[in-house]
Every structure is written in structure tokens, then in C-alpha cells.
Design a protein that fits this description.
Rossmann fold; 11 strands; about 45% helix
Length: about 325
């Protein structure tokens, strides 16, 4: 399966070519094996798929890549891993429908209102997931938020250099690394805690075992779930005591419906934040420069001049040379 709206992304294209080569080496017909998810009419990948007779699924032309998780781009891979994609989509639709009658108490309304209040001074958003199963949602959110909001120009074309930087944190692990910075470092961050209301872990420490040492007796007859919850509440309290803006979202459970709803809400929140910043959330002109240089260096026709211009501009800044590192360095 190859997924690319245009088919012009060098990383995706190179991996596709490598896989085709390996399939052929193993006597497997690539044309009978590959499914392409791409633009329904245009682009390199669509052209290849038509020429080779590949099976295809469309990426809606009006949907950008980072907003496409609830299209075939995300749904087919999810289905292949056993995820109930019907429940995923139903949850997203339900969340969208609920917004039509949302009040000030709605989770999205409360969070985006808090973000708007603080965003000028607190330009970073920390997505802090306190369940291992929710951590990867932070990685997805980071691309969605950063690429949609980080813009040089506003909607009128004025240079504004706006944006909001996402940072993904994992509880309880990052309590022992990042939280020191969060509590006592620069007050330039907002915090979004994501948790779920689930039956806590039944892994309980017996009172007898906790008597291993007097300092550990307080853990007797306590579960690991209770400890996780106490650490979550402690982290939130520490941040709030330090005057840091904290929002908390508690999912009823972790299943396809609730994850679909959360993804829909975050996509809408991103668009609302773009409205507040007066920027276009659906383009990404800032990634084109690096792409142009890479294409030029790899010899792609039509890109050499643009790549040279960008590299010439970079040379004017006289960057520091790379620092050599070897096993012989002290």
C-alpha cells in the first residue's frame, strides 16, 4: 500500500521504488500487489497507478494531507490492523454534530477559549497524555497544529510570522525530565492533559510486600492505577500552583468512537486557532524550500535553479561548520 496525494514526495516515492524492486526479486508481481491511495485524477502516483493497473482509493481533492486521517488515507491502514473504522467515523460525525449545539461547557469551547486567552505570551502547547494508548495522538496533533498554524503571512499577505509550537509529553515518564522545565522554566507554555476514565490497573501491591522497607509501606494495598492517577493530579496541581494555564480532557473510555471524536475536535480546534491568528490552516509553503533543495541535489528536472537560489540565500548567513564527532573524540 502506498499513500501520497500527489506522488511527488521524494521519501514516499523512493520507498515505493525500493519495495517494487524487492517484490520483483522475490518473483512477486508488483502490479497485482500494490494498492495506491492518491488523488482521484491528478498527480504522479495517479498516473503510475493508471498505467500499471493498480487498485486505488481516492484522497478527496479538497482535503489536505494532515487533515486526511478520517479519509481512506487513515481508514484503510486502520482497518487492516483490526480497528473498527465504522465506529471511528461515527465518533467523528457525532462530535461534529454535537458542536452545533455546543455551550460554553463543551470541552472544545473551553480549551480553544483558554488557548486564545493565553496564546500571545504562551506560544507553546504541551500535549500531555497520561495513558500509553493516547501518546501517539500527541504525535498526530503536533503535525496538525504546527503545519497549520506556523505561517509567515496572514490572510491579507502581510508578514506576521505567527504560529504555536506543539510539544508532546508522556505521563508519567516526562515527570522526571520535562516537568522541571514546565514548572520552573519560562512561562511560555500552555498545557493540554489528555486522559481517559477507565477502570484503573488491578495490579495491586500487597501490604505484606510493601513492608520490604518502612519508606515503602505507604504503597501497601495500593494499585499502580491509583499511583498513576495520583501522579497526574500532582503534576496538574504543581503546574497550576506555578501559574501555568492547564486544560484537561477526560475521555469516557479509549475506543474507536472516542478516538474518532477526539481527532475531529482537534481538527476543528486547529481551524479555529487559525481563524484567531488570521492565517490559512490548509497550506504549507514553508516546507517547499527544503523540498526544492533536496530535489535539486537529487537531480530532479526543473528544480536546479530554485534549489540553487535557496542554497545561495542560506550561504549568505554563513552557518557554522558541522562539529565532527568520532569515537576518538574525548
Amino acid at each position: 500500500m502506498v499513500i501520497s496525494k500527489s506522488g511527488g514526495t521524494a521519501e514516499t516515492s523512493s520507498q515505493l521504488l525500493w519495495i517494487i524492486e524487492k517484490l520483483r526479486q522475490r518473483g512477486i508481481d508488483p502490479d497485482a500487489s500494490i494498492v495506491a491511495i492518491t488523488d482521484p485524477e491528478n498527480g504522479t502516483l495517479r498516473s503510475i497507478a493508471q498505467q500499471r493497473g493498480w487498485r486505488t482509493l481516492p484522497v478527496p481533492p479538497e482535503v489536505g494531507g494532515r487533515f486526511s486521517v478520517l479519509t481512506a488515507v487513515g481508514l484503510l491502514p486502520a482497518a487492516l490492523t483490526g480497528i473498527d473504522i465504522h465506529a471511528l467515523v461515527a465518533g467523528a460525525r457525532s462530535a461534529l454534530s454535537d458542536l452545533s449545539s455546543a455551550t460554553a461547557d463543551h470541552a472544545l469551547v473551553r480549551w480553544i477559549s483558554s488557548w486564545e486567552e493565553h496564546h500571545e505570551l504562551r506560544t507553546m502547547v504541551v500535549h500531555f497524555a497520561y495513558r500509553d494508548r493516547l501518546v501517539t495522538l500527541g504525535d498526530w496533533f503536533a503535525q496538525l497544529w504546527a503545519e497549520s498554524l506556523g505561517k509567515k503571512h496572514d490572510l491579507s499577505g502581510q508578514e506576521v510570522y505567527r504560529g504555536s509550537t506543539p510539544l508532546v509529553a508522556r505521563g508519567v515518564t516526562d515527570q522526571h525530565s520535562l516537568v522541571q522545565l514546565f514548572v520552573e522554566g519560562p512561562d511560555d507554555k500552555q498545557f493540554l492533559f489528555l486522559d481517559a476514565h477507565l477502570n484503573e490497573s488491578d495490579l495491586e501491591i500487597s501490604k505484606e510486600t510493601a513492608q520490604l522497607h518502612p519508606d515503602l509501606e505507604y504503597l501497601g494495598n495500593k494499585s499502580l492505577g491509583e499511583l498513576r492517577r495520583a501522579e497526574l493530579e500532582g503534576t496538574i496541581a504543581a503546574l497550576q500552583s506555578a501559574g501555568r494555564p492547564v486544560s484537561r480532557v477526560l475521555l469516557d473510555t479509549i475506543d474507536e468512537s472516542h478516538i474518532g471524536a477526539w481527532m475531529m475536535l482537534m481538527e476543528i480546534a486547529t481551524v479555529l486557532a487559525a481563524e484567531i491568528l488570521n492565517v490559512d490552516p490548509f497550506d504549507q509553503p514553508g516546507v517547499e524550500g527544503g523540498k526544492a533543495v533536496a530535489f535539486a541535489r537529487m537531480g530532479k528536472p526543473g528544480w536546479s535553479e530554485k534549489g540553487r537560489r535557496i542554497e545561495a540565500g542560506a550561504q549568505e548567513l554563513k552557518p557554522s561548520p558541522p562539529i565532527p564527532v568520532s569515537k576518538n573524540n574525548d
